[in-house]
């Protein structure tokens, strides 16, 4: 996520300060945390956690699910209420509400949360010359370490003792983290990141687990980055349902359109016209109807959508097309086959596929 664009201005991120900070101990398989009253941090520890919270600003954007606000959720989350109380009166609510948050984390992660700690912290950032409060939530897993024990009678002899409830000052130990905005400062209400769910999973419904999503009481915020990320893969899936249409060519066309309209408004109608193009008008119209129906499905919900094209949000894997033959030969390239001098035809006699690559030069890589 190092090169990923942040959802918060750089000046605000740099101004982030940790204020109230506490954690509660989470033991896998239990329904109640072990509550702590106070946690003291050294300068270096405060710096480490500040950096981890700052990285939340590159997380996937979510908004609170209105069903929770109305008390209609199947498993109602009160996180937004508790966070709001903390930001309004930290002295009164921070300690008690941090315990409620920790308990609720276990409620929404029954037997799935690895033993560790859940950190709750109130942080502030400067937003347009005003100091605003946010709530940071970080789940850190315990790390097993070996303690060296010297023999009392001979200090040249040692043995090891395994410590299973050790905390490592290492970002790899951080399982989940979120930055919560309950004051409507940004379009998003929460930015969330989960270990192992990066790359193509960011800005998608796979960015965090269902457990974590229900705990936060949020749903994915559909924005320009989300749309730009989704379009190529959806176009490829649609093309796979259309006879005579190449998935790779259709996806490459969608990627090319997003690249060409960087920072400009692009509509699904524009994309439909391009990927459904055919010299036969009847075929073209049939594809347009098919495209519209596919994008209008409930699980896709992209029919008629307009968005500002963000090429940087397209996963690298969607910029590349890949063919693999039954002889285990792999042909990989960016763009359409035609633009790369690649032609795929069939032998009329044998029915075998022919891949023709035209190039002025070929370099042997290995």
Describe this protein's structure:
The protein has 366 residues and is an alpha+beta fold. Helices cover 31% and strands 27% of the residues. The strands form five sheets. A seven-stranded antiparallel beta sheet has the order 1-3-4-7-8-2-9, sandwiched between helices. The protein has a two-stranded antiparallel sheet with strand order 5-6. α4 runs antiparallel to α5 and α5 packs antiparallel against α6.
- Poorly predicted runs: 69-73
The backbone outline, from C-alpha atoms, is globular
> What is the number of beta strands?
15
Distance between the termini: 31 Å
Q: Round the mean pLDDT to the nearest integer and report it.
A: 86
Oligomer designation: single chain
Order of helices and strands: HEHEHHHEEEEEEHEHHEHHEHEEEE
Provide the β-strand percentage band: 25-35%
**Tally of DSSP helical segments:** 11
Query: How big is the Rg?
Result: 26 Å
Proportion of residues in helical segments: 25-40%
Largest β-sheet summary: 7 strands, antiparallel
Structural class: alpha+beta
Please state how the strands of the largest beta sheet are arranged side by side: 1-3-4-7-8-2-9
């Amino acid at each position: 996520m190092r090169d990923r664009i942040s959802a918060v201005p750089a000046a605000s991120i740099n101004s982030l300060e940790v204020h109230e900070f506490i954690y509660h101990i989470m033991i896998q398989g239990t329904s109640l945390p072990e509550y702590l009253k106070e946690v003291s941090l050294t300068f270096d520890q405060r710096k480490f956690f500040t950096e981890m919270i700052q990285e939340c600003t590159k997380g996937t954007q979510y908004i609170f699910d209105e069903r929770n606000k109305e008390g209609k959720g199947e498993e109602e989350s009160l996180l937004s209420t508790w966070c709001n109380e903390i930001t309004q009166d930290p002295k009164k609510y921070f300690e008690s509400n941090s315990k409620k948050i920790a308990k609720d984390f276990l409620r929404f992660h029954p037997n799935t949360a690895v033993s560790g700690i859940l950190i709750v912290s109130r942080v502030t950032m400067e937003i347009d010359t005003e100091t605003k409060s946010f709530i940071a939530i970080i789940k850190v897993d315990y790390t097993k370490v070996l303690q060296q024990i010297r023999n009392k009678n001979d200090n040249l002899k040692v043995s090891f003792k395994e410590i299973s409830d050790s905390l490592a000052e290492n970002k790899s130990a951080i399982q989940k983290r979120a930055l919560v905005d309950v004051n409507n400062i940004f379009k998003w209400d929460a930015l969330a990141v989960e270990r192992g769910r990066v790359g193509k999973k960011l800005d998608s419904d796979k960015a965090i687990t269902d457990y974590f999503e229900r705990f936060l009481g949020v749903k994915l915020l559909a924005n320009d980055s989300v749309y730009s990320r989704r379009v190529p893969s959806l176009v490829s899936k649609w093309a796979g349902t259309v006879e005579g249409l190449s998935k790779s060519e259709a996806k490459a066309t969608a990627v090319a359109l997003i690249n060409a309209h960087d920072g400009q408004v692009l509509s699904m109608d524009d994309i439909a016209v391009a990927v459904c193009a055919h010299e036969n008008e009847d075929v073209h119209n049939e594809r347009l109807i098919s495209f519209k129906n596919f994008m209008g499905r409930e699980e896709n919900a992209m029919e008629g959508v307009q968005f500002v094209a963000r090429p940087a949000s397209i996963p690298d894997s969607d910029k590349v097309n890949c063919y693999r033959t039954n002889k285990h030969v792999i042909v990989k390239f960016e763009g359409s086959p035609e633009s790369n001098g690649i032609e795929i035809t069939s032998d009329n006699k044998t029915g075998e596929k022919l891949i023709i690559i035209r190039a002025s030069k070929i370099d042997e890589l290995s």
